[in-house]
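Q: Structure for this?
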Amino acid sequence: MRFKNIVFSAIGLGLSLLLTACPAQPAISPATPAAPTAGGKLIYGLTLAPSGIDPHVNASSELGIPLTSVYDTLVYQTADGDFVPGLATEWEISDNGLVYTFHLRQDVTFHDGTPFNAEAVKFNLNRIADPETKSQKAALMLGPYDHCDVVDEYTVKVFFREPYAPFLDSLSQVYLGMASPTALEKWGADYQMHQVGTGPFMFKEYVPQDHLTLVRNPDYNWAPAIFNHQGPAYLDEIEFRFFVDPATRALALEAGEAHVIGEIPPQDAARLEDNPAFKIVAVPIPGQPLQAFLNTTKSPTDDLRVRQALLYATDREAIVQAIFREYSPVAWGPLSAVTWGYNEAVVGQYKYDPARARELLDEAGWQDTDGDGIREKDGQRLVVAAYLMSWGYIPEVATLLQSQWKEVGVDVRSQQVAYPAALEAARLGKHNLILFNLAGSDPDLLRGFFHSEANFNWAKVNDPQLDALLEEGARLRDQAERQAIYADIQEKIMEQALIIPLRDYVNLNGVSAQVQDLRYDAQGWFPWLYDVWLSRSGD
Amino acid sequence: MIQYIGKRLLSALPVLWGVTTLVFLAIHLVPGDPAEVILAQSGGSSEALEQLRARLGLDAPLLVQYVRFLSNTLRGDLGRSLFTNRPVVQTIGEQLPHTVQLALAAMAVAIVVGGALGSAAAIKRGSWLDNLCMTLAVVGVSTPVFWSALLFILLFTTTLHWLPATGQGSLRHLIMPALVLGLASSGTIARLVRSSLLEVLSQEYITVARSKGLSERTLLLRHALRNALIPTITVIGLQFSFLLGGAVVTETVFSRQGMGRLIVDAILWKDFPVIQGVVLLSAVLYTLVNLAVDISYAFLDPRIRHE
């Protein structure tokens, strides 16, 4: 019995020693030393395991986070939407917009020693366009691509069947990154596990659902001027790991299991910001805001007055405050405020005005005749059918919409369904309302949602004028003219109340204070890790 | 015995065929189109949708797709994932060991903890120890894994800094997931061990053995526990499928590789070949575990062995 007591007290003593020995937080100084230091391994947390990581084949935005450091692109895009040289030093576009001529850098080699040249560009673009590649995104980004001609070793011409304005935007993204033709031929369908680019980091290994590792390319000497330095990258190695469960992301950061993790839940972001060992790098994402598409062919949202009433009845500030905190701006139109071509004229339209909403519903003939708080017309209750996907706080947003709209006498019947089922319901037009957003830096992405023949025309809009504008926007070369067209398109979409914009998407990256000079590309999703370096703790 | 095993394995074949066919029909009847899911990440026209469906072989009539699937499966080819374009057999082969490792570790936790709680409760029946053990068992059964996982991380990682919260590769990474998953299942085992042990202890042969002057220890270990194990083993076999299901949540919370995450993603994205592959494999595993349970009866109970 005495022995037992001694053991227990020993364990107790050990426990208390351990507890006092462990500091509450690793000692990290937030002060930034002036000069970057080379070396070290960065652990970068991804939020979902991408389904396939061949940038020419697969579509997930998660694949671009690691692979943007493996591939260089022909051009780079600045935050203002300008295009600057990358692997191409200069380029010309023919007057009819059908031919792009690129002059290439002559000092670039792939990680496997293959020289980069015009043949390599041709090989890459042809691979993407080849139906056998089964490209899920890159081929669409190539648009009406026709063929490529090698003019000389470092000059290449790209031909299109029709003018295609978003081409430079596409070329600036990792999906159209330049891969080694030697490696592509050698590995075939297994290329995704053995990727070879010309970028500042080399692909080392990928263990699906566990990690993806990159190591520094010691020969890298062709950094585009858009970066802060020249020569090889600072970091020795980058390990990407997957943190699928939102609830554990901040905990993993605090435990030192990653230096950077994206998509931190807003409430955890507020907590991390109070801790000097971390910072929140909030990156607004260009493209669509989170928005509700309103079906214009299904009652009751087939009536413009009802759609406008729903917009007036939505208190967006309250929704953003409650769910996304101070990190997300309220959205007013079909493009988020950081997107090139964004039209400020939409700001303040349909501002929260429940009285106006009630008026519009009265005008449309919806009255609460039986006193149950919900309006009726011809024996029909004013019910809106909503299809909800389970991510991105969509169910939470829908709950708030439901309570706000109840105030003006609208009932929401919402169904949370699996993603494929939601897409199918929306295609068949079973919905009045579906919430969605897609990221992208070129406003041409609106064509995929508001053209009458678009796959994701969930507002079921059929407006020849809007169709013509969307087609024209994709063809025009002149940036000012394009901007004017997209300004028009945004106003038209809001005039017809095709959507209820809710919040601009902002990616909340939790970042250790050790990580210096972390910037993101024009897409907002993809980090530029070439300039990143780690300050030593205690410096 | 070998004849018995052979017969059992043969009779499993129609079961496997039935399961795969039902799953094939079910996933094709549920609304949703993988090609549409793929395109939703990049927009695109309805023409692009048709092209993609054709490239993925989704435009063929259901019967054609079924025959194609069946004949490929018989040749051991489970196809390629619609999303990653990697062979399903390879994908499963990479993930399966991680889930089996987690499930076995959790099973060990469940058996040790559940067995200890259950026996203690039965031996001290009606005492405060019995009440305590059974309360713990109810807590174990009724605590959702995703919640207890977070509590464990808060305690062992955030507060004590003892164990890593996420990832895998070492024994330290396995401890928390195995505990979380194992404890959830230990409650069921504890309750069962208690009730079957109580039943055995009330049998006449125990009274006889006790009157012969056997020590309580011998009595319990040699005579009672062994007989109480038979119903318990059946439940442990059933618990294995619970553990595989629980692994889905556990793997997600602790950012581990494994079948759980594979099947959830496959269902969410409607990746037909992967779903079919995983279901086929689960059916095979389940059949084998049940067979192992039946065979273990024979070892535990001479009456079954002699029949």
